[in-house]
Amino acid sequence: MSLRLGDTVPNFKAKTSIGDIDFYEYLGDSWGILFSHPADYTPVCTTELGKTALLKAEFDKRNTKVLALSVDDVESHKKWISDIDETQHTHVDFPIIADEDKKVATLFDMIHPNASETHTVRSLFIIGPDKKLKLFITYPASTGRNFNEVLRVLDSLQLSAKYPVATPANWNPGEDVIIGLGVSTEEAPAKFPKGIKVVKPYLRYTPQPDKD
Questions:
Q1: What's the pTM?
Q2: Is 71 in contact with 119 (CB distance < 8 Å)?
Q3: What end-to-end distance do the CA atoms of the chain give, in Å?
Q4: Greatest CA separation found in the chain?
Q5: How many CB atoms neighbour CB 16 within 10 A?
Q6: CA 170-59-128 angle, 5° bins
Q7: Per residue in 43-78, pLDDT tens?
């Protein structure tokens, strides 16, 4: 199954490091991040899971629940978590899915045969409270993810879900945003009372609406 942006992601039940879960029930009304790992006890994955745990407060602030996935079993995950906690100086308390039969990996198209016939690539999916796919990024097994970028993208997605805006290249929270094309220049001052800057009729900036 190949998922595209805007698709409703499939639900599934799975065994995890914190017990059995139903994916939709686990997410509830939160945003979700599901990200896959080629296998347990791999060095890059160890740093990624540690970084995710260290960013728990940031994900909580954004009403976002995270889940990881590996094709190894629950007991392996639990032993690996001990290593992650030790080496990354953190505490992993989010679920790691035990996808031994590769059911979830197949649902989310995480196995790319030309990269590896048996292991998942480094896929990351951001899912909205409506259970629709908002973003996915895929890295090769050799390249660790940039979780500061994941937070930046999440901020952009949550902002554009609340306001008719888009974020420009290299945008960071607190910087000006672009007014969406669905808002006319005549309507813009009422919708964006902080002011607008018209560069071109199609390129108009305004201060980030939800920042003081």
A1: 0.91
A2: yes
A3: 43
A4: 61
A5: 19
A6: 80
A7: 999 999 999 999 999 999 999 999 999 989 999 999
